[in-house]
């Protein structure tokens, strides 16, 4: 029984690390796509057609991936928007 518990703890630790890595990958991809599209629009007056949809997709996942981490740490995510 204790061995099964240790395996579950290891699996949980691995999943947390994978979740954080996936969040970092999404953030990096979001940054690269946005900067590339802005540069193309500035230099070539023509941006990437698909970049807006990809940015929306990545932004939604950036909001959903940290939820289990925040739940476990008893914190919450806050977004501040300037109005």
Question: TL;DR?
Answer:
The chain has helices at 2-44, 51-64, 67-72. By secondary structure, it is mainly α.
How are the secondary structure elements laid out?
Layout: H1 2-44, H2 51-64, H3 67-72
Helix pairs in contact: 1-2
Count of beta strands:
0
* Estimated structural class: mainly alpha
How far is the N terminus from the C terminus? 55 Å
Question: What is the typical, i.e. mean, pLDDT?
Answer: 84
Helix percent band: over 70%
User: What is the element string, with H for helices and E for strands?
Assistant: HHH
Form type: elongated
**Approximate strand percentage:** under 5%
Q: How many independent structural domains?
A: 1
Describe this structure in words.
The chain is built from three helices and no strands. By secondary structure, the chain is mainly alpha-helical. It has one domain (2-72). The relative contact order is 0.11.
Which key terms come to mind for this protein?
83 residues, mainly alpha, 3 helices
């Amino acid at each position: 029984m204790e061995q099964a518990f240790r395996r579950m703890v290891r699996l949980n630790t691995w999943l947390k690390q994978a979740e954080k890595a996936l969040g970092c990958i999404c953030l990096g991809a979001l940054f690269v796509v946005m900067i590339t599209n802005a540069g193309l629009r500035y230099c070539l007056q023509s941006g990437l057609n698909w970049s807006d949809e990809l940015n929306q997709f990545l932004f939604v996942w950036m909001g959903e991936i940290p939820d289990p981490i925040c739940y476990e740490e008893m914190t919450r995510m806050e977004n501040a928007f300037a109005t």
